[in-house]
Amino acid sequence: MSYYSLPQIQTDAQKVPCTTLLPLPHLGHLSGNPAQTLEKNTSLSLPLWLAEMLLIAPAPNTPAAITMDLPPPLQHRVVNALKANPVTLDLRAQAPHFYALGARMLELFEDEDLVEVLLETFRARAVEIADRASGGVGGRAAGDEGGFLLGLEEEEKRLWEASREGSGS
After folding, report:
1. What stretches of the chain adopt beta strand conformation (E)?
2. Measured distance CA(24)–CA(58) in Å, rounded
3. Three-class SS of residue 143?
4. In what side-by-side order are the strands of the sheet with 43-47?
């Protein structure tokens, strides 16, 4: 995606939990204290783009300013739900650009389990999406997809549309 891609901007705006590793002068406004120092060991949620900038050490032998954890849509509770049944989870409620968020976080974290869960989730959901888009699930009538469509994240919506066009529905 390009720098000005709306989905990329929305993904990078996703909040991630962070903890400061050292005092950060003039950044108190990030925790609601304007014109003050952001103290060491302060927990806060930052947009991914900002957290990434603070995570990257400014120079060799200089510590990073923060630690960053996976955002709530990619934490253990959601990952375990995806392992149990990837088709039933409302991914849009987790993050509108769920797979893009996963890909961005995997640029920063090495987590083979998360890679496997995201791939298996996409595979299982893609089969379900294609099947429903072609009208093949239990003889459901077109348009009888209400809650299912509302739970699709943005990439899945594009897959739905492509499947609908391809099946001539």
Report:
1. 15-20, 43-47, 66-68
2. 13
3. coil
4. 43-47, 15-20, 66-68
Q: Convert the pLDDT of each residue in 22-52 to its tens digit.
A: 898 888 888 887 878 889 999 999 999 999 9
Task: Write the DSSP string, 3-44.
Answer: TT-HHHHHHHTSEEEEEESS-BTT-GGGGT-TTS-B-TT-EE
What's the pTM? Answer: 0.85
For residues 104 and 74, the answer to whether their CB atoms sit within 8 Å is no
CB neighbour class for 85 (10 Å; exposed up to 12, middle 13-18, buried from 19): exposed
Cα separation, 160 vs 155, in Å, equals: 9
Q: Computed from CA positions of residues 120, 123, 125, 131, in that sequence, does the dihedral angle turn out positive or negative?
A: negative
